Automatic annotation (TrEMBL):
Coiled coil: none
UniProt KW keywords: Metal-binding, Methyltransferase, Transferase, Zinc
Residue ranges of domain Hcy-binding in the record: 1-299
Amino acids binding Zn(2+): 214, 284-285
Domain of life: Bacteria
Cofactor: Zn(2+)
Organism from which the protein derives: Agrococcus versicolor
Protein name per its UniProtKB record: Homocysteine S-methyltransferase family protein
Database matches in PANTHER family: SLR1189 PROTEIN
Cross-referenced Pfam families: S-methyl_trans
Length: 305
């Protein structure tokens, strides 16, 4: 399979835990399960499935820590102070490192989430405020031994500028990621390409690469089409949703829309001509190991741009 050094990453951890494992996740936070034997076992089953996908195809694997909600504001809602959050972030890195089991071709990526909801912009920060806000989690993940960090489901450029600066100050590589609405624009209305170009300009291109996550390929495509080739060349990872529903519809849903894994794989592969430098493929809300396997296989079978 001609994958051009594609790496496998994981999928929709939280939706798998809620809808497949039937676990309760207050605030959609997975990291508290590290303190629960059943929760750890469920997460181990989840991550092992992606390691198996990589092993079966002879590909490297990138595993994200279950820390998307392990930041200060969400910690308050979950009853976790700064010390508890630092310990949780460290425990998450150790857990995923254990899953990686010494593999030379495995990367542990410390997952950072937005200060807000992830689908709604909410209260905005300046870049300086965002850097100050995210620095504690960035440092915790770095100190725990994460190989790099990701910052997923960002909804506006200033927060991305801040978190990229936080990672640069901490000396750890970062892959930031915007989500988009059904029209391919960020939740604040900014064009995907415009937002990436702005962040790169304001951070001297400090991001290792860019990712787009938590949107169906049909929603990502128009954002990519309106972006310049130079911006598209900066996108190195895709983690897509299984559902074509809008963010508002997904927020209101009480059932899982898992879509068709094979069809999703074809939809992601159709983006390859627009983002030829993507090297990491995975899923987001509604996806599981079936979707990621289909995405990786379809991408490998797609014509090289």
């Amino acid at each position: 399979m001609a994958t051009d050094a594609i790496a496998v990453t994981d999928a929709g951890l939280e939706t798998v835990l809620v809808f497949h494992e039937r676990l309760d996740l207050p605030c959609f936070a997975a990291f508290p399960l590290l303190d629960d034997a059943d929760g750890r076992a469920a997460m181990r089953r989840y991550f092992d499935a992606f390691v198996a996908i990589a092993d079966e195809r002879g590909l490297p694997v990138v595993l994200d820590t279950p820390t998307w909600r392990a930041n200060a504001d969400w910690g308050v809602l979950l009853g976790c102070d700064a010390a508890v959050l630092a310990s949780a972030n460290a425990a998450a890195v150790a857990f995923v490192r254990e899953v990686a089991d010494g593999r030379a071709d495995a990367l542990v990526e410390g997952a950072i989430g937005p200060r807000g909801d992830g689908y709604v912009v909410g209260e905005r920060m300046t870049p300086d405020e965002a850097q100050a806000y995210h620095s504690a989690q960035v440092r915790s993940l770095r100190d725990a031994g994460a190989d790099r960090v990701s910052a997923m489901t960002l909804t506006y450029a200033d927060e991305a500028i801040g978190v990229v600066r936080a990672a640069a100050a901490a000396g750890i590589p970062i892959v930031p990621s915007f989500t988009v609405e059904t029209d391919g624009r960020l939740p604040d209305g900014t064009g995907l390409g415009d937002a990436i170009a702005l962040v790169d300009a304001e951070t001297d291109g400090a991001a290792l690469a860019w990712m787009v996550n938590c949107a169906h390929p049909d929603h990502v495509a128009p954002g990519l089409a309106r972006s310049s080739p130079a911006v598209r060349d900066r996108i190195g990872a895709l983690r897509v949703n299984a559902s074509r529903r809008s963010h508002a519809e997904l927020d209101a849903a009480d059932t899982l829309d898992a879509g068709d894994p094979v069809a999703l794989g074809a939809d992601v592969a159709a983006l390859r001509a627009l983002v030829p430098h993507v090297r990491i493929l995975g899923g987001c809300c509604g996806t599981d190991a079936r979707h990621v396997a289909a995405i990786v296989d379809a991408w490998g079978a797609a014509p090289t741009p």
